[in-house]
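User: Hey, quick favor. My workstation is busy. Could you predict this chain's structure for me?
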Amino acid sequence: GPGWAAMYAGLQELGVANGEDLKETLTNCTEPLKAIEQFQTENGVLLPSLQSALPFLDLHGTPRLEFHQSVFDELREKLLERVSTIALEGKVEERYKKLEELLEKSFSLVKMPSIQPVVMCVMKHLPKVPEKKLKLVMADKDLYKACAVEVKRQIWQDNQALFGDEVSPLLKQYILEKENTLFSNDISVLHNFFSPSPKTRRQGEVVQKLTQMIGKNVKLYDMVLQFLRTLFLRTRNVHYCTLRAELLMSLHDLEISEICTVDPCHKFTWCLDACIREKFVDNKRARELQGFLDGVKKGQEQVLGDLSMILCDPFAINTLALSTIRNLQDLVGQDTLPRESPDLLLLLRMLSLGQGAWDMIDSQVFKEPKMEAELITRFLPMLMSFVVDDHTFNVDQKLPSEEKGPVPYPSTIPEAFTKFLQENRIACEIGLYYILHITKLRNKNAFLRLLPALGETFSDLAFSDIFLHLLTGNLTLLGEEFALEEFCTSLFDSFFLTACSRKENVHRHVLRLLLHLHHKVAPAKLESLQKALVPTKQSGEAVKELYNQLTEKLELRKPSPAQVTETPSMELPLPTVPTPASR
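Assistant: No problem, here it is.
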């Protein structure tokens, strides 16, 4: 066929006879058998020792093709080995010159399946494949596909659009994996979104593939970072910030100094990575991180855009927020004010930088966001007063009660607290983490006291997936409370259900929680929740699927009609059976 002809066309350029030549010979000859023999002698394997062996193989019925094929395979293996050796020995210029000559000779046969591996191997070992050859490879889908990643890198670095096409599905896959984890049906306080260590996360398929595609190529690394920045700006999706940090640390693990030494965020990210591993910023690392931030020189402020993206990674925010809560508790014990704690101020500074990432990259104005004094002088002391309230209440519980009766738990919250959560991003983030903290301590009183403040928060942070994922996990510790009307009304009617109809993700998280805890909820409440959570026409597949799962579970719980009718008969007095002892 024509494909076959094209495949072997390259042979003629090299002076090797092909099928066309044989056809021509046979058309123009008087004795075909003699001509075939002549053609075989001229184009067969030219080894004297084989001349006598071939008729012997013929006797055994081994086709010549099979014999030639096995000799060919053997030679090809030897050639591949040889190419790999040439690539490693002798002076650099000489070895590459040899490979380039080999490429010149063999490239015309690149379409022959049997020769292709050799051509590909030669190109793979050339640090700079001639431009003309790269263009030919690029123009041919099959050749491009068959190329080694070493050759593709050379093509990609001058073709951003093509590289983008390769990277794009991986980035989509990455975001999807993150979202699947946040909406996973396994709800647990022990295994949540933030459980895997940084090292484990970097073993993920997407990070590994991107690392492999980039190799040691700074240009490709820069392109990926540019894609991540652009996507973060377009979508505000913070998981791109996680990938930015994971990619750098994956190259760090492989000790690829060509890239790590030119990324100005490398040392900062490395230090922060250690904090994320411990889920805490200790004193020594705090000073190190502060050194990096203070060391940003005039004219280099652009690095703040990159650092802010590293700090906007949810794993970084999680670590900074947990450390802030721990710090506040320590300050209560030491009777110290927030403004007197350098460690706490640094945590807030990094939280501000992380939370300001989008605005900074969007506006291209690279300076640290101003910290609001109120946050430090009013909001954090307010959180500390909540910690004190809990201590006081617990002590009061233990004291012998006098006539006045037990001291009630404070039920109101300062209006300022609610206002801070609505208007100040950092306050809101810390406030939400404080609520997660008390939930994890199974502190139902504090939880119910602060829950009303979550109805309206800064850019709806209380209804964000990460917060709801963590909250649903922590709420499993308060399982017993779900039997109580007051608790359910506060949690469902006054919080979750207020957002379900306008926010699909909230609908999903409530259904996840009920799938996990439905058996703890009072039957009447469960029934009204089931009605309130019916998917609407606009609901997506995920909501419908979860709702069906919940309905199935609840169906299984209902006693079957047969059992219901039999129940009364069980209440008749049982006939007394004499026990063996009374005989």
